[in-house]
Amino acid sequence: MYKLRLGKSVGFCSDNYYETLDEMVKNGFDSGDFDIASKWHLPEEEAEHYKTLEKGLDAFQKSGLYLNGVHISFGKNWDISAVEDSRRQAIVEKILALFTRINPYNPHGYILHGSFEPIPPENRAAQIQSLKKSLTELCNGTKSLVCVEILPRTCLFNTSKEAIEVVDSLPQLTNLKVCVDVNHYLQERAEEGVLALGSRIATTHISDHDYEDERHWLPMKGKIDWNALLAAFEKIGYQGVFNYEVGATCAEVKQNYETLFAAYNAQKAKV
């Protein structure tokens, strides 16, 4: 029987962060992602929340949940692929300052967006080079994994092929990995992306979509073939966290998780 650890992203900048931690524990979650990105579009409010990061992390640690990931903020002010080097360096230093505060809590990994958008085709190569510089500096700033997320539309890492090219070009960065957000696959099937990335995957963001845009629906509402996707995860030997990134309640997520894996294992038993 194939089963993965159950996790859920919890927004530290949300109004119900501490209540959500309690609900996760009550519903039998094993792990979670500490998400500090939800106020990326409100920089002043985001900065206020950052003043109490340690309080939030202390509560996470006290809950007994495994700190699977810390989702770093994104947007124009956090774009680590910025071509202007002085701007790129300032952003990297800002993230490294967060690493310094969070590293003592030993997160399994940090989750970062490789870019903001839109990216004109003529800028892509230059931004990839900037991204590589930033990833080198960031990976050297922590013993935790640095996981670049699969993203939609014109963002960097919008295909598994591009993610593989970037990660494999930096073999010296042994803590550089991928966060596979299956809801962001718009140019390939999610199961095909997982099979291509293989052992480069260190963590997940789980939700459903319609292959037209990201939706962050509960699995089975959209068009992802979940039996095929779970088969892909099992085939590559993934044993990490099955981390939901949805707006549903903890009880709804837990029920969805049990239904998904029960259906997959029942199908396997018939073969």
Describe the model.
This protein is an alpha/beta fold and 271 residues long. Strands 7-6-5-4-3-2-1-8 form an 8-stranded parallel sheet, covered by helices on one side. The radius of gyration is 18 Å and the shape is globular. The chain is 41% helix and 15% strand. Strand 5, helix 6 and strand 6 form a beta-alpha-beta unit. 44% of the residues are buried. The protein has 9 helices and 8 strands.
Characteristic key phrases:
271 residues, alpha/beta, 8-stranded parallel sheet, 8 strands
Give a summary of the structure in a few sentences.
This protein is an alpha/beta fold and about 270 residues long. The protein is about 40% helix and about 15% strand.
The tally of beta strands, per DSSP, is: 8
The chain-level structural class is alpha/beta
Radius of gyration computed on alpha carbons? 18 Å
Helix segment count?
9
Query: Helicity range of the residues?
Result: 40-55%
- The proportion of residues in beta strands is 15-25%
Written as H for each helix and E for each strand, in order along the chain, the element string is EHEHHEHEHEHEHEHEH
Oligomer: single chain
Mind describing the biggest β-sheet?
Answer: 8 strands, parallel
What global shape is seen? globular
